[in-house]
Description:
The complex is a heterotrimer. By secondary structure, chain A is an alpha/beta fold. Chain A is 29% helix and 21% strand. In chain A, helix 3 packs parallel to helix 6 (158-171), helix 4 (126-139) packs across helix 6 (158-171) and helix 13 packs across helix 14. Chain B is mostly helical. Helix content of chain B is 73%, strand content 0%. Chain B has helices at 12-26, 30-52, 83-119, 121-136, 139-150, 154-181, 184-191, 196-233, 244-251, 260-287. In chain B, helix 4 crosses helix 6 (154-181), helix 7 (184-191) crosses helix 8 and helix 8 packs antiparallel against helix 10 (260-287). The two termini of chain B are 44 Å apart. By secondary structure, chain C is mainly α. Chain C is built from 15 helices and no strands. Chains in contact: A-B, A-C, B-C. The interface between B and C is large, with 39 and 46 residues.
Amino acid sequence: MTEPILKIENLEVTYRTERADVRALNGVNLDVTPGEVRGVVGESGCGKSTLAFAVMRYLDRNGEITGGRILFKGEDLREKSDSEMDEIWGKHLGMIYQDPTASLNPSLPVGDQIAEVATAHGLASRDEAIGRAIDLLDRVHIRDPEEIIDRYPHELSGGMRQRVGIAAGLMGKPELLVMDEPTTNLDVTTEAKILDIVEELKNELNSAFLYITHDLGVIARVGDGVEVMYAGQVVEQASIDELFEEQYHPYTKLLLRSIPDPEGGKDSLQEVPGSMVDLTDLPKGCNFSTRCPFRSEECSETEPYLEDIKGSHSARCFEAPIEEAEETVGEEKKTNEGSIWDTPPELKREGPILSVDRLKKHFGGGGNWFPWSEANPVRAVDGVDLDLQKGQTVGVVGESGCGKTTLARTIIGLTSPTEGKIKFAGEDITVPIEKRSGQTLKRIQIVFQDPRSTLNPKRTVGQAIARPLILHGEFSRDIIPEKTARLLRSVGLDPTLADRFPDQLSGGQKQRVAAARAFATNPALVLHDEPTSSLDVSVQATILNLLRDLQEDSGTSYLFISHDLNVVRHISNYIAVMYLGHVVEYGTTEEIFSPPYHPYTEALLSAIPVPDPNLSRKRIRLTGSVPSAVDPPSGCVFHTRCPRKVGEICETESPPVCGGGEHEIHCHIPEEELNEVESVLS
Amino acid sequence: MAETSLDLAPSAWDRIKSGLSYVVKLRRKPLGFAGLIIIVFWILVSIFAPYITPYGPTQFSSDKFASPSPSHPFGTDRWGRDVFTRITAGSRTAFTLALSATLLGLVGGTALGLSAAYFGGWIEEVLGRLMDILMSFPALLIAMFVLGVLGPGTINVIIVIGIAHIPRIGRVARSATLQVKNQEFVEAARVRGESDFYIMGAEILPNILDTLGVEGAIRFAYSIFLSASLGFLGLGVQPPTPDWGLMISESRSYLQIAPWLAIFPALAIASMVLGANFLAEGLEEVTGGER
Amino acid sequence: MISFTLSRFVQALTSILIASILIFLIAEALPGDVAQMILGQFATEDSLAALRNKLELNKPLHTRYINWLSGVFRGDLGTSLSKTGVEVGPLLLRRARNSLVLAAGSMIFIIPVSFLLGIAAGLKPGSWLDRLISITTLGLISFPSFITGLVLILIFSVQLGWLPASSSLDLSVGIFQQLPKLILPILALSGVMLGYITRHIRASMVKVLRSDYTRAATLKGLGRRTVITKHVLRNALLPAITVIAINLGWLLGGAVVVEATFGYPGVARLVLNAIKHRDIPVMEAGLLFVVIAYITVNFGTDVLYTLLDPRIRYSRGEE
């Protein structure tokens, strides 16, 4: 076995804050050997990013390495001065960042920003360095690199920026490359391409990679070994195959099961009980003991060590390997005190609860003051038809810029449509929110994406939930507190939380309050705009379970917007796949996930990282990036990137609908050919 | 059910508590705390002004141009008036002017800035253009101009300084509103059918109060600054009202023989403006506002 | 780019036009009858009427506004009412030149000093140097310029006798022969602005130093010097251009207090006296000058900024 290039021993990092000292890393040990990708996985607050920057020996001003050693090529980086680190940074130790946009200097051409690594270390003259920058851009599959080097970062797409970041990281030929969530801010098809590049680099170079991510699916694809972190410690350490074969630590086990599975059924997701421990107030014994369904008495007494269990597989748990768990889904099921839905939503007549007809929403354009600066509009939503039946869920899925959020905002009335009709329970509601009747307002609600901004920071939880009850004035004031308490209980929260302010709640709790607020007026339709995408997977699982329970109890219909196909699959009866303002495919969940596919759906499915290293699937990659919605391609909007383009007809005519039954595929490819495609998931 | 005591609006006590918590936090910011002490000092002086000295602010005496001495710690002016008394009395003038003008500016600026940002579209365009033009006149110039129309006098000075504040406070209120406006809780309010008035007053305003508080402190400092300058130019408060700027203006002919006539009012103005600016700086750190 | 410049230009013109209307209206609102003021209290009704007729005071508001504006375009700004017979145009021009000299002098002093202080403080936030500079600049923005001016006079004129206390210029000698008279006004005028610009640059430095791209540049091993010169300074100093421009506009018209303290014959004091004496033509012309100067400077800055900052160049190019 080769010597590790990076050896971390007992690393401790402490942040000094006004309130208390926070021990972000607490005795971390790990090795990275040349030629391997070592993954570090964990949820927010586990310390994985701190680990990355500690290795770079570049912590925030208030952060300090308070113990242990970071041996890089046998030398302890803790003992290096900043000027000694200048020799190492870039040349021996490189880094790739989560946010490629913020990490590139906005006022320098990208070529300079790549080349400067070589010139600063005296590895090349400026001309040679630019030449090498071009080679590197070519290597990360950027087309026309000679032209791109003179561009500024804002002139590139997010995926291109991240490739530039990777090129800059590779420029000094570092022996170790630290990658801090390099694909987290990218769309799934772009992510797939970046992960391809990481795989290629791993095979071609003899460099070592420390790969930080929250996504077990990503690490299953590119990793060789993996460290699972919880509360500043490594709780499980294994090779990729070992880890996905069997998880020894309860946290890993629960975490892996909380991910909506592309193969799996639609049962409730596994939940990790409780929430992340407070790093300033750690429990006695094992850090996970407060949440662990398998804990014994020993766990809350003494702290476990990371112990070898089998092969290179070790876990920080007394009970490991744990026996196949008794199914523990979630916390105790909420007690339904006679259901809070006093009056089930009644429909005036049969038919779809929501019906969207040729809906278009174009932004800007025309309205400018000066004729010479008149712009074309952004065609965010460009002709969408959609029906939603009572009690059903339609998932709308697509990548950023596909118009899915605009669709939701237009339906709820936050923006008015440019063209088309929206009907709710048979009634035309194609008017802005100010003109809708109180009845309509009450019966269509929305749950937003960002738990940090979904609640007014100056209002208590109780006030937030009570407000719709007061506004719509159905209840006498004195029963509102009781009603509020029931709503809180229905979303699995303790009614005593009513007096709390949002900043005293966790992200998951805030989304629960948001759900309670939306359900307060007993709506017939609730739109969900990416309600779980800002949450950790284990929290996501609890929210998805909650939303399903609420739907079962109330019979409410959902329109569920998400970028995550697995989430949509888990919760929806029907799915609409959107691309550049159009629905390209619509069908039942089963129809969408099995052939025939629209070529875009097929590419999306093949791009999703799956937490299973043995799963091989068709590799379909889209070229280029999403065209501008200001000037969308003619004919079929997908033709510029379609790997299965038929010919000229795709550029000139909008595609016909094929599929049969409720299944609609908007594509020029003959139906027989579409039918011949094999399943992406095999 | 009894466990939920449901306050549907923050009580006055909650507001006071959150205000006090800022004062407590200020103690850790040396600069802000120094500012607080200076301002509190001047508040006390202005409250007790008539009881501190035996003289009246406009009381003449034969003891002209007396240099500082135990009986006249800051000396006397050309009419034999006690400078110390006029300074303490002048703090009342300064506070009256600055507080009223700041309040006027805050109310006007917030109303304009908040509604401009909230409604957007042509309303924002028109209001924004208007504020830009107002801002294109230096505040002092507007003040001169309007005082030219209205004539000098305490009320007019307040109106003028208040108006001069409006575009600047409006801009701050506007940018703060823009940050809050697109947050999801505001959209949630729209979705449930709240009126524009409710959304602006109950959802947005509480969230921009911190920013407005800091801006208010800065504008308070600037009000003192401006009113002193106007007094100096002879456009502000008219004699014999004790006003610091005016006192300095009157002292100019006697710089050679009686420099204390200029020095003490100058110190008074400087310390009050500085105190308010320190306080603003501290408040900004405490509220974590980024501007 | 061109379309941006063009629409910005139209915007500037519109602003000037609206401002001219405002100036005209407010001047109209000034209390007092102009004719009465010119002829004095004891004028006969007939002579008053005749003068009103001559001054076209009887014509409707918009006609007089258009007449005034067309006069402005022809370079005819009328004659002063208080200094009988003096043409406003040349008077304003002379005063404008003086103001410009004062403003330029201040800028030459302010820009290098504030950049130096701002960068020094911003490089090491929290250090004693930073604290010292921060408190000093807070002090600078807290002292009205007449106080700074008086202190300067007390020290350099009264005590040391090095420089003159009054800066009323001698018309027969060129302005540059009277440099010593300029030093104290320039210093007094610079104080507040020096404080503002320094604080702005410091804040901007701190922000850029904390940015992700500065971190990325550091972790490339470029060395601190290169990181600062190549990555930090450019991004931190660009926004300062706008602040300087705003202050330049202010310097041209807002220097009333300094001009009054030192008796310096600039535009601002011209306007002040015109207001006091109800000299409407002078007042209107002076104010219009200030507004045009300010808006022109702002327009120039926007265009310059667009040229220098690739981000804006790009996003505006798309408009």
